[in-house]
């Protein structure tokens, strides 16, 4: 889910050697730098999907413990981000999108960021165990480990399938939320996992279409860098075509009602329309956009709205059903 | 003997002492004030975080205790209060 933190506006490349930046680094970090290490924009989606997992679970949870469980997921996601920034500090310095992060900019040392990430990861897992249960705690630990070892260390620099397999790390939060409330894992949270898993490639590849120069400079084998923009456009459409029917499965198994069903259809049609625009936008022989990747940027933006709205509709469905206003 | 601080930050370390500490250029008074202000800011945030943790763990303890019906279940040495899973809706 790293992609959500990306900004669409181009930022100035980090002038690491500039006198201003050197002076800034000597003055030490601001509290905001430590928050930036946690990748707060990624966290919002993680927290939201975890919260939805908790809301739709069939067992109500004490509000204080539910808050602590969501906080544990938030801190765990932030810890993964901090460890990721520590490991990727070399390539972050090469990419325009990431060069101003606290470590490459010199405001926080790599060792301090690593210690911070590890401490938060351990704390989040313990907090989840103490506040909810050890099943949720184990899944949280698994998701942090998956993001750090499988995605960041193993796949990211080796294969264009990095975000397909590594995307599973971002799909865990609703499962953790569900497990926090029930102490078990069922078919429904696995379905939510699958939805986020299939949503990640089109979301991330839309970003990589307009940020591929950054990835190429850093030597990260993202799909547009390795297979070209044309193939990436095709893959975005294929994954979106898989995703949309999958989002209707909760209705089919009786886990969601008509509000979610209607939202899934409307949002799905829109997502497919965006994916189709990405495929057919004016482009040269190699598939490079002739219109400044406007379709890819729109698709990326919409993909974020899509997931928020889809999971929001699922939560609304269950909240209305719990209030007796709707039958699922 | 020349002080390490006399050299610029990126100057090579002296051969005579491989463990010599290379000190960066001194901060100006204005930079020192900024440095202190940032330290104070970080300390304040740390205070808020620590107080928040105290409140959080107090609230978690109260909530967990309210779920326990029979204290003998968890008050044994090394025991952890069990989570009471609510019945399915």
Textual characterization of the structure:
The complex is a heterodimer of chains A (328) and B (89). Chain A has helices at 19-26, 31-36, 40-56, 63-87, 89-92, 110-131, 134-155, 162-166, 168-171, 173-182, 187-210, 212-218, 223-226, 229-247, 249-252, 258-280, 294-322. Chain A is an all-alpha fold. The radius of gyration of chain A is 20 Å and the shape is globular. Chain A starts with 18 loop residues before the first helix and ends in a 6-residue tail after the last helix. Chain B is an all-alpha fold and 89 residues long. Helices cover 44% and strands 0% of the residues of chain B. The interface between A and B is medium-sized, with 23 and 24 residues.
Going by helix content, strand content and strand pairing, the class of chain A is mainly alpha
Radius of gyration of chain B: 27 Å
The SSE string of chain A, one letter per element, is: HHHHHHHHHHHHHHHHH
**pLDDT average of chain B, as an integer?**
74
Low-confidence runs of chain B (pLDDT<50, min 5 residues)?
1-7
Number of strand segments of chain B = 0
Largest sheet of chain B: none
* Structural class category of chain B: mainly alpha
Number of distinct helices of chain B: 1
Share in β-strands of chain B = under 5%
Question: What oligomeric assembly is this protein in?
Answer: heterodimer
Throw out a few tags for this protein.
heterodimer; A: mainly alpha; 17 helices; globular; disordered N terminus; B: 89 residues; mainly alpha; 1 helix; 44% helix
Describe the structure concisely for a colleague.
The complex is a heterodimer of chains A (328) and B (89). Chain A is an all-alpha fold.
Describe the secondary-structure layout:
The complex is a heterodimer of chains A (328) and B (89).
Chain A: H1 19-26, H2 31-36, H3 40-56, H4 63-87, H5 89-92, H6 110-131, H7 134-155, H8 162-166, H9 168-171, H10 173-182, H11 187-210, H12 212-218, H13 223-226, H14 229-247, H15 249-252, H16 258-280, H17 294-322
Chain B: H1 29-67
């Amino acid at each position: 889910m790293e992609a959500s933190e990306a900004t669409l506006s181009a930022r100035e490349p980090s002038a690491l050697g500039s006198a201003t930046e050197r002076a800034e680094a000597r003055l030490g970090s601001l509290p905001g730098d430590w928050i930036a290490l946690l990748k707060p924009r990624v966290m919002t989606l993680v927290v939201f999907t975890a919260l939805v997992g908790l809301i739709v679970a069939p067992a109500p949870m004490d509000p204080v413990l539910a808050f602590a469980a969501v906080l544990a997921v938030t801190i765990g996601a932030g810890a993964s981000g901090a460890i990721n920034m520590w490991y990727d500090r070399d390539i972050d310095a090469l990419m325009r999108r990431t060069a101003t992060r606290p470590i490459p900019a010199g405001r926080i040392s790599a060792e301090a960021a690593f210690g911070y990430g590890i401490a938060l990861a351990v704390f989040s897992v313990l907090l989840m165990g103490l506040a909810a249960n050890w099943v949720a705690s184990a899944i949280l630990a698994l998701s942090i480990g998956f993001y750090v070892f499988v995605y960041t260390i193993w796949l990211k620099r080796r294969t264009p399938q990095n975000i397909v397999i590594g995307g599973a790390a971002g799909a865990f939060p609703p499962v953790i939320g569900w497990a926090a409330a029930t102490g078990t894992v069922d078919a429904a949270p696995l379905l939510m996992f699958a939805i986020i898993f299939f949503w990640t490639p089109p979301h991330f590849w839309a970003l990589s279409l307009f940020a591929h120069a950054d990835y190429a400079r850093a030597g990260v084998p993202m799909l547009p860098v390795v297979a070209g923009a044309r193939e990436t456009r095709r893959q975005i459409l294929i994954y979106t075509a898989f995703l949309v029917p999958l989002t209707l499965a909760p209705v089919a198994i009786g886990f969601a009602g008509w509000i979610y069903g209607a939202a899934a259809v409307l949002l799905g049609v829109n997502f497919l329309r965006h994916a189709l625009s990405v495929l057919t936008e004016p482009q040269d022989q190699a598939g490079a956009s002739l219109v400044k990747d406007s379709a890819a940027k729109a698709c990326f933006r919409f993909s974020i709205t899509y997931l928020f709205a889809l999971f929001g509709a699922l939560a609304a469905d269950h909240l209305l059903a719990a209030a007796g206003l709707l039958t699922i | 003997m020349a002080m390490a601080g006399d050299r610029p930050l990126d100057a090579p370390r002296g051969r005579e002492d491989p463990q010599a500490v290379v000190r960066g250029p001194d901060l100006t008074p204005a930079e020192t004030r900024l440095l202190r202000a940032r330290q104070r800011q970080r300390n304040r945030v740390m205070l808020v975080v620590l107080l928040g943790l105290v409140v959080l763990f107090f609230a978690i303890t109260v909530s967990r205790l309210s779920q326990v019906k029979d204290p003998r279940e968890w008050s044994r040495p090394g025991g952890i209060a069990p989570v009471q899973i609510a019945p399915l809706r």
